[in-house]
């Protein structure tokens, strides 16, 4: 535990009843549909412990700040396609691999999601931040040849199938939070544009993804960042490639959220970078925030600025040039306090150049769901990481568009526990200083 300033910074799976076994999750790839299960990895320059988030010990709860604005941050939720494909009179299709009706949810998933999201809603907030990877998003393919979203033999057919899948999975995602009275503020992740990689020779699927990244972004924005009237929810947006996917919004008198799109299509590939128009817009937003004397400025983007963070079942995407990038320099100059990133499905806080980088996230379908609760007043900021310990069973799988589906059995029988806390205050010079930290949220340089 840290007790000193760190320097300035601006139903257990009911296996017996189901006739199946529950397991502590192995370590799959980042996708919900792994063919094999490589070990979890931790890429750091220091002695970060190994093992999964479920094994982390509890720590004391963070203090409650009176009259604070509260929010939830939960990147990579869900990182999986979960929806009832048999609802609303849809035609049923059979998965040839299993002989079962193809479906992307069941009663156990519905109960698990209700439990986890319900607990988020109990934290006295209406706002949930999700820094990318809402879905699995490998749409426009049909590895089991079910025909659920139509044929996928040609590029045009793939795009129609992609649109049909988006029209099912995105609304299902939105509605789960709306049913609990929660507003979502999402960022684009790699899974919203087909999942990396986007470049390979003689691969029809990857060629399709690379060609259609701009269209995937428009579809995501129409589904996730638009109101019922089809108009953008947020007026403060950049020009250029990120005009549909980046935005700034004042969450509260004390907090400005800037959501960036870190996937730039350049040179025939997708790069982890922001395009020039988006960078100029960000600089303008940060200048205005300084003029308005906003107490806390948070930026959320999908990938971390450094690979030296805990990772769990991740493809390890990192922002190009990281701390040497124009984006990082703009955030430092502009007085950003916190950079929230996902991708890694684990938690690490890094302190650099007066900015707290909070890399976090989880995988619900691995029994490892987690979220961060934030509290902000004019001069104080408190973060608390809450970790669930679920169980899963692989006796059967959910259907997905690619490869084998996620575990068919899942349960979150208990409440989350606190595995990390961070308390900080605003300095007289306008920076941010950590007063106390513990567990997975203890900052590292």
Task: Please summarize what this structure is.
With 445 residues, the chain is α/β, with parallel strands linked by helices. It has seven helices and 20 strands. The longest helix is centred in the middle third of the chain and has 24 residues, at 155-178.
Topology:
Blueprint: E1 8-9, H1 15-18, E2 42-43, E3 69-73, H2 107-121, E4 127-130, H3 155-178, E5 183-186, H4 204-211, H5 213-224, E6 247-252, E7 255-259, E8 263-266, E9 269-272, H6 276-291, E10 296-300, E11 309-310, H7 326-333, E12 338-341, E13 348-352, E14 355-359, E15 370-376, E16 380-387, E17 391-397, E18 407-411, E19 417-426, E20 432-439
Describe this entry's structure for a reader.
- It contains 7 helices and 20 strands.
- The protein has 445 residues and is of the alpha/beta class.
- The strands form 5 sheets. Strands 1-20-19-16-15-3-4-5 form an 8-stranded mixed β-sheet, covered by helices on one side. A 6-stranded mixed β-sheet has the order 6-7-10-12-14-13, covered by helices on one side. A two-stranded antiparallel sheet has the order 2-11.
- Strand 8 and strand 9 (269-272) form a beta hairpin.
- Helix 3 (155-178) packs parallel to helix 5 (213-224) and helix 6 packs parallel to helix 7 (326-333).
- The longest helix has 24 residues, at 155-178.
- The chain is globular and about 65 Å long.
- 52% of the residues are buried.
Fraction of residues in helix: 10-25%
Shape: globular
Structure summary, number of beta strands: 20
Summed over residues and divided by their number, the pLDDT gives a mean of: 90
């Amino acid at each position: 535990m840290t007790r000193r300033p760190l320097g300035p910074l601006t139903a257990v799976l009911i296996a017996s009843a189901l006739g199946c076994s529950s397991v502590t999750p192995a370590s799959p790839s980042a996708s919900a549909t792994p063919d094999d299960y490589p070990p979890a990895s931790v890429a750091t320059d220091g002695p970060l412990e190994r093992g999964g988030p479920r094994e982390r010990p509890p720590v004391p709860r963070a203090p409650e700040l009176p009259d604070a604005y509260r929010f939830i941050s939960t990147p990579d939720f869900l990182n999986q396609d979960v929806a009832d494909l048999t609802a609303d009179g849809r035609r049923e299709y059979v998965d040839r691999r299993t002989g079962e009706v193809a479906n992307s949810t069941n009663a156990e998933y519905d109960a698990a999601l209700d439990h986890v999201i319900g607990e988020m809603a109990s934290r006295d907030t209406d706002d949930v931040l999700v820094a990318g990877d809402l879905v699995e998003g490998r749409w426009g393919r049909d590895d089991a040849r079910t025909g659920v979203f139509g044929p996928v033999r040609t590029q045009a057919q793939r795009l129609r199938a992609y649109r049909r899948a988006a029209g099912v999975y995105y609304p299902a995602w939105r509605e789960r939070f709306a049913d609990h009275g929660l507003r979502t503020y999402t960022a684009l992740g790699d899974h919203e544009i087909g999942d990396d990689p986007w470049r390979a020779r003689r691969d029809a699927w990857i060629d399709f993804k690379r060609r259609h990244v701009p269209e995937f972004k428009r579809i995501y924005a129409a589904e996730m960042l638009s109101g019922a009237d089809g108009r953008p929810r947020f007026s403060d947006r950049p020009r250029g490639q990120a005009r549909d996917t980046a935005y700034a919004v004042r969450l509260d008198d004390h907090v400005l959220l800037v959501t960036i799109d870190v996937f730039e299509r350049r040179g025939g590939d997708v790069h982890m970078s922001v395009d020039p128009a988006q960078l100029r817009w960000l600089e303008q937003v940060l200048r205005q925030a300084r003029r308005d004397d906003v107490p806390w400025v948070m930026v959320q983007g999908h990938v971390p600025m450094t690979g030296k963070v805990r990772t769990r079942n991740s493809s390890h995407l990192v922002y190009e040039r990281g701390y040497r990038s124009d984006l990082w320099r703009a955030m430092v100059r502009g007085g950003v306090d916190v950079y929230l990133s996902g991708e890694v499905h684990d938690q690490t806080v890094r302190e650099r150049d007066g900015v707290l980088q909070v890399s976090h996230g989880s995988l619900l379908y691995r029994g490892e769901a987690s979220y961060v609760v934030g509290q902000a007043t004019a001069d104080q900021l408190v973060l608390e990481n809450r970790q669930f310990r679920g169980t899963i069973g692989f006796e059967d799988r959910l259907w997905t568009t690619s490869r084998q589906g996620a575990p068919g059995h899942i349960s979150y029988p208990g409440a989350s526990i606190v595995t990390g806390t961070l308390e900080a205050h605003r300095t007289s010079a306008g920076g941010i200083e950590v007063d106390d930290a513990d567990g997975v949220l203890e900052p590292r340089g």
